[in-house]
Amino acid sequence: MIKFITKRILYLFPLLFVVSIFIFALLRLNGTDAVLSYLVASGITPTDDAIASAKAALGLDKPILTQYFIWIKQAIMLDFGSSFLTKRDVAADMLYYLPSTLKLAAFALFLTLVISIPLGIISAIYKDSYFDYFTRIISYLGVCTPNFWLGLMLIVIFSVKLDLLPPFGIGSFSHMIMPAIAISFMSIAINIRLIRANMLENKNKRYIIYAKSRGLKNYQIYINYIFKISLLPIVTTLGMHIGELIGGALIIENIFAYPGIGRYAVNAISNNDYPVIQCFIIMMSFIFIILNLIIDILYAFIDPRVKKGMV
Asked: What residues form the membrane-spanning segments (predicted)?
């Protein structure tokens, strides 16, 4: 297990290196002009002299390879430079906004597990019942509904019409309820369908028939056998759900004016703020890799066969 974890951590560095090259080249070759965006945002007329001066000030007057080596050398020391627009330290800003996004994503993940697991289990146990039809409709709607549209509808219903929840900002726990629901709805729907399908598939396996012949009660069979085996693919997709939840924050945080890293990144993207975008991609890549490593380790503890292969 230790050898497996060490190997995965060592893979982290070359992977982040490849990501850094890709995002650095993509930003500079995608046809956008960070200098023009900087001048417009600063209220400066983009004359030839102003453009040349801005390029020198932002370090964009050097060859691309030189720019990359300067940036990567600083990034290795966890110095991602300063924002083109605000002139503030990018790493400090990221660490300031990141906790709010992680808190929102954690609450959304909590909703995903607490809602989807019971609904998926009950739907599988009472297959073709009214409850099963209801959960299948919810699952279908969840997969088809864009989270930004759902966020807007939640604001209209619970803030404008009913005046129950605050529509924007951050502060109390109530500010996170609608954004978390909007982000997690699709993950809830996917998880319900996955749990239901796996439990229905596993309930007809030979070891389940053997358990029934031993006289075990139905709830024991479902919880101790069927659900435990069906949990394995759920753990596998947990990393995907976490990625969806954090990625969904990019749009949802802007809709709800939630001051997290997603809103900060979208503002940087719209203004071609290269240092912020580069830091954001590297940070998100690091988080996703670490989360998937944790999921792999958790999977090994659930399934001894996987643990044996990691030794």
From this structure: 9-29, 104-126, 138-160, 172-195, 222-242, 280-302
Going by C-beta distance under 8 Å and a sequence separation of 6 or more, which residues neighbour residue 161? none
Could you give the CA distance from residue 148 to residue 252 in angstroms, rounded to a whole number?
Answer: 6
pLDDT of residue 158: 92
In DSSP terms, which residues pair with 89 in a beta bridge? 82
How many angstroms separate the Cα of 18 from the Cα of each of 38, 92, 114, 280? Answer: 28, 24, 37, 15
Residue for token pair 């809709």: 255
**Domain containing residue 185:** 94-271
In this structure, are 99 and 246 located in the same domain? yes
Assess whether 132 and 250 both reside in one domain. Answer: yes
For residue 32, what is the enclosing H or E element? none
pLDDT tens-digit map of 230-253: 777 777 777 777 777 877 778 888
**Lookup: tokens for 295:** 């999921």
Is residue 246 one of the residues assigned to a domain?
A: yes
- As a whole number of angstroms, the distance between CA 121 and CA 106 comes to 23
**How far apart (Å, rounded) are the C-alpha atoms in residues 187 and 198?**
16
Q: 102-148, pLDDT tens digit by residue?
A: 889 889 989 998 998 889 888 888 888 898 899 989 888 888 888 88
Full DSSP string of 259-301: -SHHHHHHHHHHTT-HHHHHHHHHHHHHHHHHHHHHHHHHHHH
Task: Quote the pLDDT of residue 307.
Answer: 56
**What are the Cα distances from residue 218, in Å, to 31, 47, 169, 201, 310?**
62, 77, 47, 16, 35
Whether 311 is in a domain gets the answer no
Report pLDDT digits (tens) over 184-200.
998 899 888 888 888 78
- Total domain count for the chain? 2
**Interatomic CA distance for residues 242 and 239, integer angstroms:** 5
pTM: 0.80
Residue 158 forms part of a structural domain: yes
